[in-house]
Design a protein that fits this description.
This protein has no helices and eleven strands. It is mainly β and 111 residues long.
């Protein structure tokens, strides 16, 4: 059974930065693709970014140039560096891998 545990969320002012982490534990061979999703109140969950085992990345248009996804294969951990945060980035952020979801971490961007 695989578990994903996120951390790093919080309250930040517009223009600020946060780094989210998501660590995988349990029994598995490898993680091919990691993904970060987010869900704002009253909205559907949306894909934010993905990264493959080879390091190929993909981003939603709304976060391109501001967010960076990275991974540490040795630690089975994925990161999401978020810069120039906007109020519309406020959401619960979830990581996803191996058909498993993390519990989510709240990110609130407000002055």
């Amino acid at each position: 059974q695989v578990q994903l545990v996120e951390s790093g969320g919080g309250l930040v002012q517009p223009g600020g930065s946060l780094r989210l982490s998501c660590a995988a534990s349990g029994i598995f061979f490898s993680i091919n693709i990691w993904a970060w999703y987010r869900q704002a109140p009253g909205k559907q969950r949306e894909l934010v970014a993905t990264i493959t085992s080879g390091g190929r990345t993909n981003y939603a248009d709304s976060v391109k140039g501001r967010f960076t996804i990275s991974r540490d294969n040795a630690k089975n951990t994925v990161y999401l560096r978020m810069n120039s945060l906007k109020p519309e980035d406020t959401a619960v952020y979830y990581c996803h891998a191996l058909r498993t979801w993390g519990q989510g971490t709240q990110v609130t961007v407000s002055s």
